[in-house]
Amino acid sequence: MFDPTSLTEPVYQALNGLLRVAELKPGQILLVGCSTSEVIGEKIGTHSSSAVAEAIMAGILPLVGSHDLFLAVQCCEHLNRALVVEEACAQRYGLEVVSAVPHRQAGGAFAALAYRTCQQPVLVETISAQAGMDIGDTFIGMHLQRVAVPVRLAIQSIGSAHLTLARTRPKLIGGERARYTLEEAERPI
Q1: Residue partners of 56: CB distance under 8 A and separation at least 6
Q2: N or C: which end of the chain has fewer CB within 10 A?
Q3: Distances (CA, A) of 108 to 22, 34, 71, 145
Q4: Residue 188: is its pLDDT beyond 90?
Q5: Where does the pLDDT of residue 112 fall: very low under 50, low under 70, confident under 90, or very high at 90 and above?
Q6: With respect to CATH, is domain 4-186 assigned 3.40.720.10?
Q7: Are 69 and 30 in contact (CB under 8 A)?
Q8: Pairing relation of β-strands 121-124 and 157-158?
Q9: Terminal CA-to-CA distance of the chain, rounded, Å?
Q10: Widest CA span in the chain
Q11: What is the pLDDT at residue 185?
């Protein structure tokens, strides 16, 4: 018998590793997409599990709180991959709020739990997060800042679900004369 509580520690460890690499600042956005169906070895969108969602959230919330981050949780395609965030996040980042309430069959168990866990939940259509955790190939890339960089850790799955982690960085702009560090900039051309 599958014990959902066994998921909490690997989720915590994976997120802790991502946060070490990403070096997010307080008030930045961590994006999480999660297919609880994939976690239990089923096809995405077919066996949404509240118990799995709770176990995964238990591994995420302590780190979000201790790093003073905003959590954005991506809904499934039935809500156009909208995101659950705190109203304060939407206000700070000037995000347009949309109307829907995620549930297990539209949004998914993890997004439904996020909506019920937030103090003042709202749904937004789009976001530009600084780091992300994708559990079960939910395709969070559309909601990350433009230059996403994969983060590789020893943990490559949560339950049966493939795990993808990403941080972002500013775009490198310029041409052949551009320099990207202060040390490079001080060297003669």
Answers
A1: 7, 8, 11, 34, 36, 39, 110, 135, 158
A2: N
A3: 27, 8, 16, 24
A4: no
A5: very high
A6: no
A7: yes
A8: unpaired
A9: 65
A10: 65
A11: 87
DSSP H stretches of helix in the chain: 8-22, 36-39, 50-66, 87-93, 109-117, 182-186
pTM listed for this prediction: 0.92
Cα–Cα distance for residue pair 142/100, rounded to 1 Å? 20
CA atoms of 189 and 173, how far apart (whole Å): 17
Beta strand 29-34 with 70-74 is parallel
- 22, two tokens: 């990403």
Query: Among 80, 70, 58, 67, which residue's Cα sits nearest to residue 121?
Result: 70
| Residue 73 and residue 46 in contact, taking contact as beta carbons nearer than 8 Å | no
Quickly count: other Cβ atoms within 10 Å of residue 173's Cβ: 7
Of the candidates 106, 108, 105, 86, the one whose C-alpha atom is nearest the C-alpha of residue 97 is 86
DSSP state at residue 143: G
Angle among Cα 92, 95, 99 to the nearest 5 degrees reads 125
pLDDT at 180: 86
Q: What is the mean pLDDT of the chain?
A: 95
